Fold this sequence. Notes:
- 68% of the residues lie in helices and 0% in strands.
- The protein is mainly α.
- The longest helix is centred in the N-terminal third of the chain and has 26 residues, at 40-65.
Amino acid sequence: xxxxxxxxxxxxxxxxxxxxxxxxxxxxxxxxxxxxxxxxxxxxxxxxxxxxxxxxxxxxxxxxxxxxxxxxxxxxxxxxxxxxxxxxxxxxxxxxxxxxxxxxxxxxxxxxxxxxxxxxxxxxxxxxxxxxxxxxxxxxxxxxxxxxxxxxxxxxxxxxxxxxxxxxxxxxxxxxxxx
Length: 179
């Protein structure tokens, strides 16, 4: 209950949401929250680990239910939502807080093997171009979700959709099709 409430609070208000507000939303006292998570960083890490586990579960479920290219596209759409709901997490990870420094590596370790399997399967089916590495996909999608520092704002889902179209186009599957 605490992790779910904290995740919802982080998604709506960012990782700097007051601990008191999280406790109130969870219906517990601040002391109870601190007893389970002595620091804000402990809470952020616990929420992030839980959400990464859910990302892996979603990826596995999609891989079992759809063709590799379709599963990949659906998971990437989920990943875009995952990134959007992590307001302030990137800044927190770069804040110098040693408790948060390991989060990007944890994310990569947990997700990369399953994503790589899906990328390889999609490439073997000629649904996407071959040779794409999991780290490249994760980084590219994450960067496409960052609002530009100048110019007009972009829609991350549209940008990622264009990127995914490029992966499919380069597979040769759609090149020259007149259907």
